[in-house]
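Input sequence (119 aa), recorded before submission:
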Amino acid sequence: MSENQKKLKLASLALLVLVVPWVVSVVSSMLGGIHLLNIMMLVATFFNILLGVLGIGAANMPTRARRLPGLMVIALLVNAAYLMEVFYYDYSFVLAIINALVVVAFVVFAKAVIKEDIH
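Predicted structure, token format:
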């Protein structure tokens, strides 16, 4: 297993670990009613789980990383939209920024694994 594969696996595990505080935050936010911010957080949580599971598989078998680019673009867009909403609604942005940084790290490491697999 190469260094990039190990880093991709760590980023994938970090995404799966971040799901727990996101779910707690979503549930506590929804007690006050369903808002667009909660829906975006649920969508971002779904993409975190999806990227985490597929990223672990791609770290184990690099040929699987070739099906990640489309999903990575969508996940980046969802996280960017969520970050804009967090700043607009003046919500706690620490968790959102940490999540966005982990998603960006995941994308960087996944691209490196794809590049290694091609060569």
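Checked by second reader. The helical segments are 3-30, 36-60, 69-88, 94-118.
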